[in-house]
Design goal:
This protein is an all-alpha fold and about 160 residues long. The protein has helices at about 1-5, 10-25, 30-35, 40-50, 55-70, 75-85, 90-105, 110-120, 125-140, 145-160. Helix 4 (about 40-50) packs antiparallel against helix 5, helix 7 crosses helix 8 and helix 7 packs across helix 10 (about 145-160).
Amino acid sequence: MEEETLSKTRKKAQSHALQKLGVELVDLSRDRLESLRLPESLFEAVREAQRITAHEGRRRQMQYIGKLMRNIDPAPIQERLDAWNGVSKAEVARQHALERTRERLVADDAALTDYAQKHPGVDVQALRNLIRNARKETAAGRPPKAFREIFKVIRDAEQT
């Protein structure tokens, strides 16, 4: 019923939006594409588009992908792509929270104790060494390798 009330212009805009989303899917690696758990026909169409090099063949395949996407809800796919691209507000907020946690850990030794209590699975000794190395890097003006490693450890601990 809703499709009947949409104007031709609106339908065309939605079709173009789905094709644009399809282009983003084609640009993904196989691992990320598989993690989206797309319907089999759409997954195969995207994989085929990744193999096509001829301009006209690729254009027609992209139209086909857009057609297949009309039968699914694109919102979860778009949310996942936004999170991967750092566009999602929730993802940005999560990244900022992780950065604040890292700053607290490097600035204050007591923060590590609190963090270890909240995340019992984290390797406290390894994290303590990374914090010590990050402080040395900052003092010596070296690139922040350990600082980045702390972020990875925190991010992994938050995901589990």
